[in-house]
Amino acid sequence: MEATINGVRQPIAEGETLRTLVERLGLKPDRLAIELDRKIVKPSVWASTFISDGAEVEIVHFVGGG
Fold it and tell me: Could you tell me the CATH superfamily of domain 2-61?
């Protein structure tokens, strides 16, 4: 299975969720916004949101500063 993650085709495991993707990529979940197939997904449902073959995932990191 494959998905496009931030514009790059990558293999994904069957049954992979947005939560497991975030963990696998080593990202801090409290500083992210995720869009799956052009719809924003709330962090409260990442663990139950499966990534299907051919899905498009966009992950945005929030950066603080002044």
Answer: Beta-grasp domain (3.10.20.30)
